[in-house]
Specification:
With 234 residues, this protein is α/β, with parallel strands linked by helices. Helix content is 32%, strand content 21%. It has an 8-stranded mixed β-sheet with strand order 1-2-3-4-5-6-7-8, with helices on one face. Strand 1 and strand 2 form a beta hairpin. It starts with a strand and ends with a strand. It binds iron/sulfur cluster.
Length: 234
């Protein structure tokens, strides 16, 4: 496991909590719109300064009583075999843990839930489940649609607070795709539509592309909101 970044304070990454965010290097996908390529592409990861785990936990010790939680994100945190150990160590220090994941590793999710190591999960839904081919096109590499479906079920039945979210990308998603995603997830607690930022994307062809307009996003939200307890645009 390589820790490639640490945001020492965030008021927005962990809903309702003052938190720090730790960024783990590496990802099993290559979403064309990803703007964290320095944490995803091996040739860039090797240039990413590493934060030694001991220093990270030293930082957390100093922030006890000041921070409520830690957001564990990436890259994709679940590609790390020792994620359960890492998260367990954070929990033993009495911090809440939020995990950001692409949902491709239900086995690790199951283990984390079983051990009560997670307090909030945010899972990215990359595309409609119409076909594996379509989902894989959106993720750049094979995501494993069956595993994605398994993770959705696990999260919804975990008893742990959660959200699903989709970054809506021009030339990747259509309005119909998002409606299909909503029907697939429904009923569910929270679903967020995230605007696309055409900056330093993995696929350079997406840089500078016009995102969906506020009106288009509001129109989609109006259609899918009844499927969720909370459905918002970020
Ligand atoms: S899952 Fe996709 S968006 Fe998330 S870090 Fe990996 S490549 Fe980037």
């Amino acid at each position: 496991m390589k820790i490639g970044g640490l945001q020492k304070l965030t008021l927005i990454d962990y809903p309702g909590h003052v938190a720090a965010t730790v960024f783990l290097c590496g990802c099993n996908l290559r979403c064309p719109w990803c703007y964290s390529k320095e944490l995803v592409l091996p040739e860039l990861i090797k240039n990413q300064p590493e934060i030694v785990e001991k220093d990270f936990f030293g930082f957390l010790s100093e922030r006890k009583g000041l921070l409520e939680g830690v957001v564990v994100c990436g890259g994709e945190p679940t590609i790390n075999e020792d994620l359960v150990r890492f998260v367990g160590k954070i929990k033993r220090m009495d911090f809440l843990v939020k995990l950001d994941t692409n949902g491709s590793n239900p086995a690790i999710l199951r283990d984390l839930f079983k051990k009560h190591l997670i307090d909030y999960v945010a899972m990215d839904i990359k595309q409609s489940p119409k076909s594996s081919r379509k989902y894989n096109e959106a993720t750049g590499l094979k995501a494993g649609l069956l595993k994605i479906k398994e993770s959705i079920g696990l999260i919804k039945n975990s008893g742990v607070d959660y959200e699903f979210r989709t970054t809506i990308v021009p030339h990747v998603h259509t309005k119909e795709d998002i409606i299909e995603i909503a029907k697939w997830l429904a009923p569910a607690k929270k679903y967020y539509l995230q605007g696309f930022r055409g900056e330093k994307t993995i696929n350079p062809q997406l840089e500078g592309q016009r995102p969906f307009s506020d009106e288009e996003l509001l129109d989609i939200r109006k259609i899918i909101a009844p499927f969720f307890e909370i459905c918002e645009i970020r």
